[in-house]
């Protein structure tokens, strides 16, 4: 997370009224923050990180490659703003993590034998349920 610094010019913040309980304060003051960051067009992110972030199946990322984070957890605009930025940094940190490539492995002989033995046992149980002597 220390490697990347996103300039203010790439972040778009919009302050809106929060939903939920809160009485007059929530009806009068726009404390909720909607933070937008264009992943697809950002010159700050390198290509590998951008690909990993766009490949994630996240409902916050639009079809155009813009992540939209809505923060309305706190009562003040500043705390919601910081919360949205923290959540953006966590999202980007996930993209910076390079997953280990999977090594193809085969099941062991013992595991194959145990699987087949359990299948035979289940088959015997089911075969035992069919009654042919109806006398």
UniProtKB/TrEMBL annotation:
GO terms for molecular function: peptidyl-tRNA hydrolase activity; ribosome binding; translation release factor activity. Residues 17-33 form the Prokaryotic-type class I peptide chain release factors domain. Residues 97-106 have a biased composition (Basic residues). It comes from the Bacteria. Pfam families: RF-1. InterPro entries: Pep_chain_release_fac_I. This is RF-1 domain. PROSITE patterns: RF_PROK_I. SUPFAM superfamilies: Peptidyl-tRNA hydrolase domain-like (SSF110916). It comes from Solilutibacter silvestris. Residues 110-135 have a biased composition (Basic and acidic residues). One of its GO terms (biological process) is rescue of stalled ribosome. Residues 96-135 are annotated as: Disordered. NCBIfam families: PRK09256.1.
